[in-house]
Design a protein that fits this description.
Elements lengths: L2 E3 L5 H12 L15 H13 L3 E8 L2 E11 L4 E9 L3 H15 L6 E7 L3 H9 L3 E13 L17 H11 L7 H7 L7 E5 L2 E10 L5 E9 L8 H15 L4 E7 L3 H10 L2 E12 L10
Parallel strand pairs: 4-5, 9-10
Antiparallel strand pairs: 1-2, 2-3, 3-4, 5-11, 6-10, 6-11, 7-8, 8-9
The protein binds coenzyme A.
Length: 297
């Protein structure tokens, strides 16, 4: 069956396919889907595609899409985050032919790849290992806070130019592999995300970065961190409240977040606030280009 590069016109069908297949934890790729409805998922794909940060390949039959495999790209960081592979049937063969096509379509500037699967998706994990990826030791847990998007008192975001160096110093120390670079964070600030900080003098000692998804009913707490000398004094809870308040204020009724195994303190904090565990994910990583020799046989 033919495999081809997807265009914007394919995104609604891809969005539906991803939702249909990912509902089953054994086929769930977390980069592809985290609980949205089909229309919302397609809108999220369209937004990233419009920013030229998404490449998808599809395989189709006379009845429609048989499979899809994509990669979200950050050209500045040279990093890619895989979506999939997704296949309705004949999984290994479809996944391998999609992989071969996607590999050809990826810009050469992308040299580090990540995939993030539901821990129950053993078939996907085996696929990535077969293609040279290394399973990451840390598990990640996705939490959801549901509730009314009732308007809440405004909390002022605060990141002055003066505070930026100390913000980035703390941010890099706590999130050394963040998927956003400094410039990207500042570009998005005031639009799709906000940066709330706690200051001691002009030094940032804590921050919370909430993000509003393309579908404004959904938001995420993307980064929350407090300087280690000042933990357990209530700063993290206050920053989290500021992030949630901002997301509620922009209409988010569902708030997601992701936390690593190591963040046991953070998990306790989130659970206290009412976040509920949705699923646990496992990451796979490849540094270098996808290797045609190690694959597709
Ligand atoms: C998670 C983090 C932001 C919490 O910040 P904090 O300022 O220490 O949080 P708070 O003081 O507001 O803690 C509120 C409650 O959360 C729970 N909690 C926080 N850290 C905890 C820990 N290490 N162990 C157990 N419970 C913890 C406690 O119930 C605490 O209340 P208590 O101190 O009265 O018992 C901070 O530990 C941190 O920066 N960690 C590294 C980055 C990270 O993992 N971020 C989360 C992933 S996005």
């Amino acid at each position: 069956m033919p495999v081809r590069l997807a265009t914007a016109a394919d995104l609604p069908a891809i969005g539906s396919l991803l939702v249909e297949l990912c509902r089953d934890p054994v086929a769930h790729c977390i980069h592809s889907w985290s609980g949205e409805a089909s229309v919302e998922n397609a809108a999220a794909l369209a937004q990233v595609y419009g920013e030229q940060e998404l490449t998808y390949v599809v395989e189709e039959s006379a009845d429609g899409l048989v499979g899809a495999f994509g990669c979200e790209l950050d050209h500045d960081l040279g990093r890619g985050w895989f979506h999939g592979p997704h296949a309705r049937s004949d999984w290994d063969a479809v996944a391998d032919s999609l992989h071969a096509a996607l590999r050809e379509a990826l810009p050469p500037s992308i040299t580090e790849f990540n995939a993030f699967l539901n821990v129950e998706n053993a078939r996907g994990g085996a696929f990535y290992e077969r293609h040279g990826f290394t399973e990451q030791p840390m598990r990640h847990h996705e939490y959801l806070l549901s509730g009314d998007a009732a308007s809440a008192p405004a909390v002022r975001p605060f990141l002055e130019a003066l505070s930026r160096p100390s913000f980035f110093e703390l941010f890099d120390a706590l999130f050394p592999n963040a998927y956003y670079g400094h410039e990207r964070l500042l570009e998005m600030q005031g639009k799709s995300l906000e940066i709330f900080v706690t200051l001691v003098g002009d030094q940032v000692v804590g921050f919370c970065v909430p993000y509003r998804a393309a579908d404004a009913r959904r938001g995420e707490i993307q980064f929350l961190g407090v300087h280690e000398d000042l933990r357990r004094t209530g700063l993290g809870g206050d920053l989290l409240a500021a992030g949630i308040t901002w997301l509620r204020g922009v209409g988010a009724s569902e708030i997601l977040l992701n936390v690593a195994d190591a963040g046991t303190g953070a998990r306790r904090l989130y659970e206290q606030v009412g976040f509920e565990l949705q699923h646990t994910g496992v990451g796979f990583k490849l540094v270098g280009r996808p290797d045609p020799e190690s694959s597709d046989t």
